[in-house]
Amino acid sequence: MKTAVLLAACMGGLAFGVTAVAVFERWSLISDSRPAERDKRERPKAPTIAPEEKRRVYPYSIVAGGARTVEEAKRAMNDPAVRAHYATVDLSKLKRVTLTADISGYVSYRSGDQIYWTAKKLVLKAGETVFTDGEHVVRGRCLNRYSPKPMFPVQTNPPSEKVLNTPVEVPLVALEFPPAPLPFGPPPLIPFAALTPTVPNVPGSPAGSGGRRFFPGTRPDRPPRRVSRLCFRLVQRRRAAIRGRLCQRWRRWKWSHPSRTCAGR
């Protein structure tokens, strides 16, 4: 009986040990795999940086950067700042075309807020992209118009063909960013009459003297004409007094030296 109980206890202990070892190994495997899964789940993805798109901008362009598609060209031509320049262009028939041969003619360009035409013919080389409605031609790189005949207005000192064909690489973001409006408008204009001082009404002054304009250096209680006349009279009196003194000295010297006066004659 004791032997059977001892054997059963040994078998139970052995089964418990095997179970404990299996549970420990299972737990160790789970604990080892969790950090790897956590690292995979929490590791941030590397950010993807899109390449910065740039576009060639030609000097004196009516629309900086031009247009690459028909929709973009229509949207640019409907801008109120340049809409009048494309008034004769039928936008419903506009299409994109690539030149197969060189053509020469006159080209429009923008200088400040004004649009002018070249006085000399320029060459549009084969391979250039243009937009046309079947009659009018617009350059795709700058949306400057082309005409086989001379057009007006013409600038006195127009840019050369070399300057018009020298582009500059500009990021597309800079072209699409609208200019920020000014937080304040132009200063108000002050009328000239408000800048001219007036004579205040002084007690004891002649009636009707108030409200007259005067200039610095004159008395506000007298008109400028009276002041100038008084100064002129004082100057005249001073000159007359000096002239009288000189005449008296000359007479005294003449009577005191009669021989010198006769010899001088």
Task: Give your account of this protein's structure.
- The structure is a single chain.
- This protein is α+β, with helices and mostly antiparallel strands.
- Helices cover 38% and strands 14% of the residues.
- The chain contains seven helices and nine strands.
- The strands form two sheets. Strands 2, 3, 4, 5, 6, 7 and 8 form a seven-stranded antiparallel sheet that branches. A two-stranded antiparallel sheet has the order 1-9.
- Mean pLDDT is 75; it is low at 207-215.
Taking the alpha carbons of the first and last residues, their distance comes to 187 Å
How big is the Rg? 50 Å
Strands, total number: 9
Tell me about the largest β-sheet.
7 strands, antiparallel
Encode the helix/strand succession as letters. HEHEEEEEEEHEHHHH
Strand fraction band? 5-15%
Q: Helical element count?
A: 7
Coarse morphology:
elongated
Helix content percent band: 25-40%
Overall pLDDT level: 75
SSE-based structural type: alpha+beta
In the predicted model, the low-confidence regions spanning at least 5 consecutive residues are: 207-215
